[in-house]
Design brief:
Length: about 325
């Protein structure tokens, strides 16, 4: 999960605000994903307004340790972390969501130039940015609605300035390792020499604890996952019956990752507009990976992308890690 549940977005506020373009992209991606032998829906579509609200609820669940654990690291080590970031920072946050953990940085950074939150849910992002402007009136805040996995432009005023990218929430774990290296490589280019990356990632641990985090007893994570189908119904004229689908979370030991699926409970045919999609009983739609790493594994992966690790902070139980890296 990340924002742990996922990534991605559009390219600029202007292009992303075109509802016809957004709907066309969503429709094409859904039909492409569901027409494959192994059906899939891209996790970037988790984060409509309702999905973003549900994710915020997930972050408060007792089983879902990543958010509160990462927040505790940020609180305990904020001064040391901000020393590594340095003064006069331009902070670009990937998958900013409600920017809750970011406040730990904003409260401790010295002479910060600007904060650029990046996220896929425009309403959620812009509302959060408005609140941050009230709480930090002297800080330049420029929200960017963009898909950071396919690239976006930094505002011209900061393009020649070393950038610190803040990438919390273990969102990097949603990508397979090769794709994660590719994204980290692009981040290194964006940071430029002298810039850096502050990133959170989930550490590998017992399957029991991991499964509980992604399949909570109150069913909020199930609602979050199944909201993808509700979103198709709302926006693409679909007729998915939620009673006929269920949420599935499994731990893949070989690849040290959680895998999230939506499973068809019966044999059925679903329509999206005029297109019909057939499902066998037990057939699954893949929606998300969440890879887990050791500190050494993650450091090696970041090294392939052009970063050198400066420091790492963990909680007492070593459930989660926050690492600062500099561009080599």
């Amino acid at each position: 999960m990340t924002q742990s549940h996922c990534l991605e977005l559009k390219s600029s506020i202007a292009s992303s605000s075109d509802p016809n373009e957004q709907t066309s992209d969503f429709l094409n991606d859904v039909l492409t994903g569901l027409s494959q032998p192994n059906k899939e829906l891209h996790c970037k579509y988790f984060y409509d307004e309702l999905g973003s609200q549900l994710f915020d609820q997930i972050c408060e669940l007792p089983e879902y340790y990543p958010t509160r654990t990462e927040s505790s690291i940020m609180r305990a080590d904020a001064d040391a972390i901000c020393q590594h970031i340095g003064e006069g920072a331009v902070l670009v946050e990937y998958g900013s969501g409600s920017s809750t953990k970011t406040r730990q940085l904003l409260d401790h950074l010295v002479d910060q130039q600007a904060y650029l939150p990046v996220d896929i849910s425009d309403e959620h992002l812009l509302r959060t940015a408005d609140q941050l402007r009230l709480d930090y009136p002297e800080l330049k805040i420029t929200p960017i609605v963009a898909d950071f996995t396919v690239g976006f432009d930094i505002p011209a005023a900061y393009r020649d300035t070393p950038i610190t990218v803040y990438f919390p929430g273990s969102t990097i774990g949603n990508l397979p390792p090769d794709a994660a290296v590719k994204l980290l490589t692009e981040i290194a280019k964006q940071c430029q020499l002298g810039g850096g990356l502050l990133i959170g990632f989930d550490l590998d641990k017992s399957p029991e604890k991991l499964i509980a985090a992604y399949d909570d007893s109150t069913g909020v994570t199930a609602k979050f996952n199944l909201n993808l189908l509700n979103r198709i119904n709302r926006e693409l004229d679909g007729n998915f019956d939620m009673e006929n689908f269920s949420h599935v979370a499994i731990y893949n030991e070989e690849h040290t990752r959680i895998e999230i699926y939506i499973e068809s409970c019966i044999e059925q045919t679903v329509a999206i507009g005029e297109i019909e999609i057939k499902f066998a009983e037990g057939e699954r739609i893949f929606t998300e990976y969440s890879h887990k790493y050791s500190i050494d594994q993650f450091q090696a992966m970041a090294g392939r992308a052009g970063f050198a690790a400066d420091a790492v902070w963990t909680d007492d139980n070593e459930l989660f890690a926050v690492m600062h890296l500099s561009v080599k």
